[in-house]
Write a structure and sequence with these properties.
Layout: E1 32-40, E2 62-70, E3 77-82, E4 88-96, E5 113-115, E6 135-139, E7 145-157, E8 160-173, E9 186-189, H1 210-216, E10 224-229, E11 235-239, E12 263-264, E13 266-271, E14 274-275, H2 280-283, E15 285-288, E16 295-298, H3 299-312, E17 341-345, E18 348-352, H4 354-357, E19 358-363, E20 368-373, E21 375-378, E22 385-388, H5 390-393, E23 397-401
Parallel strand pairs: 3-9, 4-8, 15-22, 16-21
Antiparallel strand pairs: 1-2, 1-11, 2-3, 2-7, 4-9, 5-7, 6-7, 7-8, 10-11, 10-23, 12-15, 13-14, 13-17, 16-22, 17-18, 19-20
Length: 406
């Protein structure tokens, strides 16, 4: 998208990490840098809440992907970066996916990868019955799932390689054709294995994720990755440490409240300088999730936020009209007239630009750009939960660390 000249000045870059334990020395020469591209998918595995919310035509099924290769093959697999799950997996050539797989992983002809036996010590996954291979099931919100087998092989990230375990998908359920539209070929799950509390007898998958595996193999200096996105959702992924060239000012730290995913505590929300009137109790658990397209808010938070915007900014086109930004994409760029959303995470304020929470999307039918709200309502997820997806993350650098307190 080409932004108007009155685009707001770049907001201060923010940064998050799992636990504040130690200073990280930049080993910039050893860092891995991968290009991130935002793509539209017809049915996103990454929409954690698409079965639980009133999804409208404004819903963004966008994902952010990075390229990887396996072994000596030159085939690039574009994997969805997902901090809301743990398994990195490619689609098998014999995948039961109900559609042609674009870039399948050939399980029979791979010279550098082989299936892991369930008796192998690497197979830290609960197995059922008389197993032969190390099989897995990854469940996603809304009843979606992938099933497959763990392989061990050479995975290449940029100029670095490591022999690590990764999944090969043989069955998908409820995911539609999110991997079959020439844009995405699998998923890079970067949730943490939570070794201290991992229990395979209760269904936990205790195999390290891709970042942890690269660190364990000595291919990167530390189990750290950063996601830097511009307002179009494109940017870069930095693996192995902190790169000070990617941000200005002081670093902002947020503690995490989960050993497997990235949960934190949201305490208030303002539209510009207007308090929406919600508290931590209304937000519930707040998940930082690169695999979700939008900001997903519990009904109370969403309703109050919508009321504040309509009451105080109703003079802006497509706010209170019959065709409005809350019900679908609109043809006019109203972002320059809207204020930032100001989330208080712990005791720190994070300003989310309208260029992040309203998404510019090309409409091929009309051959024009439309503008869609990257905020959705969680109608009945079963518990209060806020999901900070790409509508929150665009325009920032976020750094995730894998260090733990005992």
């Amino acid at each position: 998208a080409v932004y108007p000249t009155n685009q707001p000045s770049p907001i201060p870059l923010e940064m998050m990490k799992a636990f504040v334990l130690l200073s990280l020395v930049c080993l910039c020469s050893a860092l891995i840098r991968l290009p991130i591209k935002q793509v539209e998918t017809s049915h996103a595995i990454n929409n954690r809440y698409d079965r639980a919310t009133n999804v409208t035509s404004s819903s963004s099924n966008s994902s952010i992907v990075v390229p990887v290769t396996v072994g000596r093959s030159s085939t690039k697999y574009n994997l969805v970066i997902d901090t809301g799950s743990q398994i990195t997996a490619l689609q098998a050539d014999k995948c039961d996916c109900s559609y042609p797989v674009t870039h399948p992983f050939n399980t029979s002809n791979s010279a550098s990868a082989s299936a892991i036996s369930c008796s192998n010590s690497t197979c830290q996954v609960a197995q059922v019955g008389g197993c032969t291979t190390c099989d897995f099931t990854q469940l996603y919100y809304g009843g979606q799932s992938i099933k497959g087998t763990y392989y061990n092989g050479i995975v290449n990230l940029g100029g670095s390689s490591a022999s690590i375990p990764f999944g090969v998908i043989t069955t998908m359920t409820g995911i539609g054709n999110s991997f079959g539209d020439n844009r995405t070929d699998g998923i890079m799950g970067l949730g943490r294995a939570s070794y201290a509390k991992c229990n395979i007898s209760t269904g936990d998958i205790c195999i390290p994720n891709l970042i942890e595996s690269f660190a364990n193999a000595g291919s990167i200096p530390a189990p750290v990755f950063g996601i830097q996105l511009d307002y179009d959702g494109n940017g870069q992924m930095v693996i192995g440490g902190d790169d000070p060239s990617l941000y200005v000012g002081s670093l902002r730290y947020f503690p995490m409240y989960s050993n497997d995913l990235y949960y934190t505590s949201a305490n208030s929300l303002h539209v510009g300088n207007i308090d929406v009137g919600v508290t931590n109790k209304n937000f519930g658990n707040t998940l930082w999730d690169t695999g979700s397209s939008n900001i997903a808010l519990p009904s109370t938070v969403y309703g109050y936020t919508k009321q504040v915007i309509q009451k105080n900014y109703g003079y802006i086109p497509y706010i209170n009209t019959t065709t409005n930004i809350f019900g679908g994409c609109v043809p006019t760029d109203i972002r320059p007239q809207l204020p930032p959303l100001v989330f208080t995470i712990e005791d720190k304020q994070v300003l989310i630009s309208p260029y992040a929470y309203i998404y510019a999307k090309y409409d091929a039918v009309r051959d024009s750009t439309t503008y869609c709200l990257a905020i959705q309502q969680l109608v009945n997820p079963g518990y209060p939960t806020t999901i900070l997806g790409l509508g929150f993350l665009r325009g920032f650098l976020f750094l995730f660390l894998f260090f733990f307190l005992n």
